[in-house]
Fold this sequence. Notes:
Residues 1-20 form the signal peptide. 39% of the residues lie in helices and 16% in strands.
Amino acid sequence: MKYFKNAVAVIMLSIAPALLFSQVKPLDADLTNYQYPYEAHFINLKSQNNDLKMAYMDVKPKISNGKVIMLLHGKNFNGAYWKQTAKDLSDKGFRVIIPDQIGFGKSSKPQSYQFSFSQLAENTKAILDELKIDKTIVLGHSMGGMVATRFTLLYPEKVQKLILENPIGLEDYKTFAGYQTIDQAYQSELKNTAETYKNYQLKFYYDNKWKTEYQPWLDLIAGWTFHSDYPKVAWDAALTSDMIYNQPVCYEFKNIKTPTLLIIGTRDRTAIGKDRAPKELQPKMGQYQELGKKTQQQIEGSKLVEIENVGHLPHIEVYDKFWNALYDFIM
């Protein structure tokens, strides 16, 4: 009888992940069958001998206040997770532009592409040029904070204000973690599952407290792992991980002259390559309660809003606190 109970327990543990993620729908590389919260538009790019499509949402207010804000997504996301932010901004009169970077979301997944933050910034500028937008507020989250930083440094005349929400790249990961080849990164990406993605998000984003409102943003990346297109997505994910590791922006914060706000969830411990760093260095990585203050000191005249006991995703985990900090700064 004891053996039978143990066997049942083992079986239940083995099928639990399958039951947990049974509602996740397979998604192709370009999220063809996934409907964004607002209509997806596309521009055609000829870049590095590739013919590419770059997706974006353009949310226009009923009554305009004359201001434009551009929202830049993180590495494990796409523009869709800005749904609530875009709605509230639009309700306040802002025109909201939400790109999917090349390699992400509904945009093309080139398999031969040199990813760089400068290239992503240039691609992003192409959307503004297409829409004839001369100036915009720029908000970047996570990897989007690195894109936003590079965009601001390259095109300062286009940026009215800069907001960095728990950006990665506040430290140089090369000084902690050893190098991982793109091939090694690709093999690691191929091992991702809905379960590993959720475990990562629980650890770094939500402090092991899962809520149903987090599920849609997990399903978007988990759905790729159930589709035959996943190797394409995994390859671009490996390329962009290499970009983040090898192209730090932290040494150039001192060059930003644009009015800047840092919104920092202080519980965040996100750091690229932490698992490859020596054991004694791992606890020193991703200390956002220290990195936020250090970065504020580097960006002249910048403002810091720390949100205590919040992880990597303030605009999902504690939306009201995020919104209050954002709106106070942009009005």
